[in-house]
Amino acid sequence: MSITAIKSLASTSKCEGMGELRRGPWTLEEDTLLVHCVACHGEGRWNLLARSAGLKRTGKSCRLRWLNYLKPDIKRGNLSLEEQLLILDLHSKWGNRWSRIAQHLPGRTDNEIKNYCRTRVQRQLKAEAHSALLREAVRSCWAQNFSSIPPPHMFDEMPPWASDELRGVTSFVDRFAISSGGGHCSVNNAYEVDPWNLAPTSVLTPTCFASEHTSCSNNDVTEHSSWSMDESSDMLKSYMSGAESEVPFGDDN
DNA sequence: AACCGAGTCAACCGCGGGTCC
DNA sequence: GGGACCCGCGGTTGACTCGGT
């Protein structure tokens, strides 16, 4: 297709009246036109480039389209584990400096990394909400079965006065949370699948404890795919009685 | 088959910094 | 010095897809 033909297409497609700027998704014709113009004139001077190409787009829009989608060395597809770990690492160092992080991941754009992290953060927040749900459910379970022992803060930050017994239960809850994470994921294989799942509160299944029957399972307890509320409280009781080994899952760490 | 909610991702917006006149 | 313009960054939006019901 000649450049004239492309220009003609771009100027007539869905755009009435000269001077009106097009918005929304880019058409194939616009993409082709932009690629051609960048090949001729190079990157930069985006407003000028947009005008000279006859594109009814802002320079900004052209730049974004080129950098995030049309540039030849853009990588497509899922992020590899190495890339995910690198993002995790760099994000912990630099925070939301997406472009800076992107510089260390050849072929990945800041937009892509930003979207990736946002998705993870949302997932994390949800998981934390689920975690709160679990804590509340266990709290309620506790209230029914261990009413003689005050439960109020046992799943929050441990107060100085907390007994070793209470600390032990917190440990139990934490281990439960980790072990039940991601449906069928132990901590180890969750890490292999997705390093962001390493955060201890990020791996709860939503239905754990929240419904009448739990649906927790993990690699260590394949035989225990369904625990009732009673069974859960039994587990708490046996744990409290010092029979830690009876808790039906091992230490994933 | 239709609907709905969650997840994904391309694109837009606002702002700040740099440069040029 | 300051106004206009350009560029890049990070935040946000909205369309689309897909899986579950």
Automatic annotation (TrEMBL):
<dbReference type="Pfam" id="PF00249">
    <property type="entry name" value="Myb_DNA-binding"/>
</dbReference>
<dbReference type="InterPro" id="IPR044676">
    <property type="entry name" value="EOBI/EOBII-like_plant"/>
</dbReference>
<keyword id="KW-0805">Transcription regulation</keyword>
<dbReference type="GO" id="GO:0003700">
    <property type="term" value="F:DNA-binding transcription factor activity"/>
</dbReference>
<feature type="domain" description="Myb-like">
    <location>
        <begin position="18"/>
        <end position="70"/>
    </location>
</feature>
<dbReference type="InterPro" id="IPR001005">
    <property type="entry name" value="SANT/Myb"/>
</dbReference>
<protein>
    <submittedName>
        <fullName>MYB protein</fullName>
    </submittedName>
</protein>
<keyword id="KW-0539">Nucleus</keyword>
<keyword id="KW-0677">Repeat</keyword>
<keyword id="KW-0804">Transcription</keyword>
<dbReference type="GO" id="GO:0043565">
    <property type="term" value="F:sequence-specific DNA binding"/>
</dbReference>
<feature type="domain" description="HTH myb-type">
    <location>
        <begin position="75"/>
        <end position="125"/>
    </location>
</feature>
<dbReference type="InterPro" id="IPR017930">
    <property type="entry name" value="Myb_dom"/>
</dbReference>
<dbReference type="GO" id="GO:0005634">
    <property type="term" value="C:nucleus"/>
</dbReference>
<feature type="domain" description="HTH myb-type">
    <location>
        <begin position="18"/>
        <end position="74"/>
    </location>
</feature>
<keyword id="KW-0238">DNA-binding</keyword>
<feature type="domain" description="Myb-like">
    <location>
        <begin position="71"/>
        <end position="121"/>
    </location>
</feature>
